[in-house]
């Protein structure tokens, strides 16, 4: 919790210090989709991703973490991630179904209410990294390592809390 940057911290450092503060490497959505699908469809990458899904990480969280790491490394922007996410979600879902792996697409409402999703995601990523043998530290391992770094720096909890509706129609019935 105390590891996250404080508001305004980026204003105290030299501009263009981070990859995402510079122009992205790719701006065309089709190019980004092609790049990520090529990267994810490698046999060395698929085994690590399927292992994460098998261990309990939802597809949505996997895709969001993967795309966050791409944004943080300066490959593309956040708005391109939003457009690319459904395609990658579908690809990973179809791949997991073809591999006959039991997986979940989203965190359940009970898990969201329970909290600590950030620590759960970080734990799953760390476990996957720790269980990888030295001989299998390939491009898939590198992807998981980048995702782990992104998950530490960009918490998911805020985003999930924003998704919860706070409008007038979402209030619980308080009639007595």
Q: What are the defining features of this structure?
A:
single chain; 176 residues; mainly alpha; 8 helices; 58% helix; globular
Report what the structure shows.
Helix 1 runs parallel beside helix 4 and helix 3 (59-72) packs across helix 4. The chain is built from eight helices and no strands. The protein has helices at residues 29-40, 43-54, 59-72, 78-98, 109-114, 117-131, 139-153, 157-163. Residues 157-163 have low confidence and may be disordered. It has 176 residues and is mainly α. It has one domain (19-153).
Instruction: Quote the beta fraction.
Output: under 5%
Sheet with most strands: none
Poorly predicted regions are 157-163
> How far apart lie the N and C ends?
39 Å
Mean pLDDT equals 75
Helix-strand topology string: HHHHHHHH
SS elements, strand count: 0
Radius of gyration: 18 Å
Globular, elongated, flat, extended or rod-shaped: what is the shape?
globular
Which secondary-structure class do the elements indicate?
mainly alpha
How many DSSP H or I helices?
Answer: 8
Please estimate the helix content: 55-70%
How many domain regions?
A: 1
């Amino acid at each position: 919790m105390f590891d996250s940057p404080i508001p305004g911290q980026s204003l105290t450092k030299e501009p263009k210090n981070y990859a995402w503060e510079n122009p992205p490497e790719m701006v065309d959505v089709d190019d980004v989709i092609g790049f990520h699908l090529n990267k994810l469809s490698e046999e060395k990458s698929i085994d690590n991703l399927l292992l994460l899904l098998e261990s309990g990480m939802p597809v949505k969280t996997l895709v969001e973490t993967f795309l966050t790491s791409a944004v943080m490394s300066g490959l593309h922007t956040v708005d391109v991630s939003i457009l690319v996410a459904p395609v990658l979600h579908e690809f990973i879902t179809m791949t997991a179904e073809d591999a006959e792996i039991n997986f979940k697409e989203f965190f359940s409402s009970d898990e969201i209410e329970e909290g600590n999703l950030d620590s759960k995601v970080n734990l799953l990523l760390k476990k996957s990294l720790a269980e990888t043998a030295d001989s299998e530290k390939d491009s898939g391992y590198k992807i998981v390592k980048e995702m782990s770094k992104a998950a530490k720096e960009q918490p998911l909890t805020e985003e999930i809390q924003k998704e919860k509706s706070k409008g007038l129609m979402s209030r619980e019935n308080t009639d007595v």
